[in-house]
Design a protein that fits this description.
Strand order of the largest sheet: 3-4-5-11-10-9-8-7-6
Number of helices: 15
Structural class: alpha+beta
Largest sheet: 9 strands, antiparallel
Order of helices and strands: HEEHHHHEEEHHHHHEEEEEHEHHHH
Radius of gyration: 25 Å
Helix content: 40-55%
């Protein structure tokens, strides 16, 4: 009897699978788009079409799109997917996914592989190592802040400087920050020269954490989550100036096992025409800064998230830089103790600066509300 029951069950299962195979092409045709089986909340199969894949790209869900491409490759319908997503750079999706996976692996290894390290006064952990022309560094700190502010604070490259009103080109043009610009001018016009403490307070509420920035401008915005920036910086301790071009890519991993958001500052697309470096400025052959933002514990419910409730957020930054020849020559003659001192001082200053910037910056608040990535931040919230 048991054997008969098992046989009947197998026959029913085979019949159901056969019916499914007969219906699936018809369902795909009626939908008019590529379909992929993904498990929904109730365990049922749901369809993922090309429009939804494009939406995923606009939302920074590169991992999910790359997974769909992998499934298409196994199923042998890669050409069809590429036709549906002909306006998307599929190679770039795979490149971003690869760099994100490499970053997650690096974060998982912790402090292993670094030459020196220490802790900043607030508890931030830092490490660095120099290997020929390559500098690798790591800094981990926990900040109590609205999670969306943490994400935006790392992604809005031009707001991270210590004087963004002078360093940000969009601030100077008065476009997306026009509302805050008017408020700041009103404050300044009603402040007498003797009220210096008021002016300092206003400046502090606009200040970022990077002291090396001179000028930053967004030169290309493919999508809100994948943009290209020109960063002009000065490093007095190394007697060097830099003119670097970097992509800023936001990768939403909240639905992935990592349960985090990654911000990659990495080389721009290979086919992009880059402006020549400014006179007497170097350009790094390779630079990548990977930032992983992890909310610790459960996020607040929707009503509290909407009001910007703070949560502990672990911010891990991984630096991987191939320095220009001129800078390499300087580094060769710097004693280890001096290098360690520079690293410790930088970590101490940035630990305090990041906390203050993420918690207080009014320009950052304005960027989240009305900037070019406002819709993305609203969806992520």
């Amino acid at each position: 009897a048991t054997g008969h029951s098992s046989s009947s069950s197998n026959e029913e299962q085979e019949e159901q699978e056969e019916q499914k195979e007969q219906k699936e092409p018809e369902d795909i045709a009626s939908a008019g788009c590529i379909a992929d089986e993904v498990v929904g909340e109730g365990g049922e199969a749901v369809k993922v079409g090309s429009d939804e894949l494009r939406q995923w790209l606009r939302e920074g869900r590169f991992i999910a799109v790359n997974r769909r491409l992998s499934q298409a490759t196994r199923a042998g319908d890669t050409d069809e997917v590429e036709q549906e997503l002909e306006h998307c750079d599929l190679e770039r999706v795979q490149l971003i996914t690869g760099r994100c996976n490499d970053m997650l692996a690096t974060v998982g290894r912790g402090a292993s592989g670094y030459l020196g390290g220490g802790k900043a006064p607030g508890g931030a952990e830092w490490n660095y190592t120099v290997e020929g022309s390559n500098i690798r560094a790591r800094m981990v700190q926990t900040c109590h802040v609205d999670f969306i502010r943490a994400v935006a604070g790392m992604a809005e490259v031009d707001l991270t400087g210590d004087s963004p009103m002078e360093q940000s080109m969009r601030w100077k043009r008065g476009r997306t920050m026009s509302g805050l610009s008017r408020r700041s001018r009103t404050r300044e016009s009603t402040t007498s020269p003797s009220d210096s403490h008021v002016r300092i307070s206003v400046a502090m509420r606009s200040k970022g954490f990077r002291t090396d920035l001179v000028e930053v401008s967004e030169i290309e915005g493919g999508t809100p989550v994948d943009t290209v920036w020109q960063v002009i910086a000065a490093y007095p301790s190394l007697r060097s100036k830099a003119d670097d071009i970097l992509s800023s890519t936001i990768i939403d991993l909240m639905d992935e096992p990592a349960r985090a958001v990654c911000v990659l500052l990495h080389p721009p697309p290979a086919n992009m025409h880059l402006p020549t470096p400014r006179p007497q400025h170097n350009r790094c052959p390779f630079m990548q800064i990977s930032v992983l933002l992890e909310p610790l514990g459960e996020l607040p419910p929707g009503s509290l998230r909407a009001t910007g409730a703070t949560v502990p957020v672990r911010i891990t930054r991984i630096f991987d830089v191939e320095v220009p020849y001129a800078v390499r020559k300087i580094l060769q003659f710097l004693p280890t103790m001096i290098m360690r001192g520079i690293a410790n001082r930088t970590a101490t200053d940035e630990e305090q600066g990041i906390n203050s910037y993420l918690q207080q910056s009014e320009i950052l608040t304005r960027a989240i509300e009305v900037g070019s990535r406002a819709e993305f931040y609203g969806r992520l919230r």
